Amino acid sequence: MDAPAINQQAIDNLFTPGSVAVIGASGVPGKWGYLAAEQALRDKSRRDVFLVNRTGGEIQGEDAYRRYSDIEAVPDLAVISVPRFAFEETIDEVLARGTRSIVGITAGFGEEGREGRAVEERVVTKVREAGAAMLGPNCMGVYDGHGGVRCMPWAELTPGPVGFLSQSGGLIMDISKRLAEVELGFSRVASVGNQAHVQIPDVMGNLAADGGTRLVAIYIEDLAQADRLFESISGMVSGGKEIILMTPHSTPGSVRAARAHTGSTVTSMQATREKAAQAGAWYVSSPREMVTVAQALLAPNRTAGKRVAVISDTGGPGVLCSGLAEKQGLEVPEFGAALQGRLRGLLSPRAVVDNPVDLVDNITVEPMVDTLEVVLEAEEIDAVLMNIHVFVHESAELEVRTGKRIGRLAARSGKPVVVTSHSMDSPGVLAALRCGIPVYRDTGDAASGLALQCGCRSVG
User: Fold this and answer.
1) In this model, does residue 340 exceed pLDDT 90?
2) Which of 26, 43, 130, 327 could form a disulfide with 33 if both were Cys (CB 3.0 to 4.6 A apart)?
3) What does pTM read for this prediction?
C-alpha cells in the first residue's frame, strides 16, 4: 500500500520557506553544521534565520538558541545536522514546536543496518502522524535558485533551468560542475538521501509547477515505488517538462554499494530504461551523458531533418565528426555544385568544400563563421556540426563578437547548430553558450546532442 500523500505546503516550504532554523549549527569551519548555517545566513535579508546549538553562545556572528522551543516564532523549515543519537529527540522538539518541513542531513540510519533502520522507522511514523514532510535523512540538503533557500553544504550551486532530484549528494556536485562549464545551472535541487519519508515523486509536483524549471533530471537507486515514479514522470512530460532519468547499472558491486549508500535495492537497468521510454523520459547511465542530453533538450532549435553539414578547422576532427554523426543516424551528404561554388569563392584554394568542410589554412575563427552563414542558407542542409579546435583572435572582444554571431545565425535560420571545441572556457565559446548554442568538448557528445535535436534518437 502506498503511503498517504504528503502535505504540499510542507513540500513547497522545503524550497521557499519564510524562515529557516539550522539545528546543530556550528562555528567550526568544515563541519556540516557550520556550512549549513553559513549558507542560510547569506539569505537572512530575505528570511529569518535561527541557529540552534546545545551550548548556545554566538555562532558566525549570530546569537544561537540552546533549545528549539526557545525560538520566538515557529520556523517554516528545520535543517537538522546533529549526531545520530540526538536525531530522534530533535525531531520530537521540531514537531512539538509546529514546524512541518524538515531536512535531515544526519546519516547513520537505514543504510547502516537494523538499529539505524529502527530509528528511521520511528522517526518517519512521528513525522507522518504530525502531517509534516522530512527530506532525508542521510541527505545533503535543498536548494532553490530563484531566491529561495540555499542549504546544500559542500556545494556552491549556480542558478539555471535544470531541476535535480537525487539520492546522491556527490552527484549533485558533479552535475553542477558539468552544467556550469556549459553555462547552465539549477532551478531547484533536492537531495533525498534514504527517501525515508519524502520520496522523489513527492517533490516532482513542486518542480512541475515551477516556471523556472524547464528540465528535470533524476538520479535514483531505489525503485521500490517505480509505478508512482513513472506515473509522475508521465504527468510531467504531458505538462511540457523534459525529464532525464539516471540509475546505476545493476551489478553485484552496485547492489552492495547502493545498500550501503542509501539502503536501496538496485533495479534492472533494462527494465528501467523500458519504463522510462514508456513514460516519455530520456534515460542515461552517466553524469556526462546526462549533461549532454540536457544541453540538447534545452537548445532552442529542433528539426525533423537529418542532413548535417560538418565544418572543421582541422582535418582529423572533421573526419571523426562525420563518422560519429552518421553513426547516430544523421546524414552527411555531399554538397551540391552551387553550394560548393559559393564556398570556393569564400575560402582558401586548399580548403575542402564538399562536406565535411575543412578550412585547412585559416588562422582565425571568422572564416568558419562565414562558412556557417553560407551553409545555413542552403536548403539542402538541416543542421550544422562545427569543430572549432581553438578560438583564435587578437582580442577577447572579437572572440565574444564571433560567439554571439554564431548564436544570431542559428537563431535566424532556426536550424540546430552545435559546436565541439577544446577551449571550453574561451570568451568565444562562453559567448556562444550564452546564446543557447550547445558546445561540447567531446566530438561524440556533440554528435549525440545534435542527433537528439534532429529527432533521430528514440526516447529511452
Assistant:
1) yes
2) 26
3) 0.91
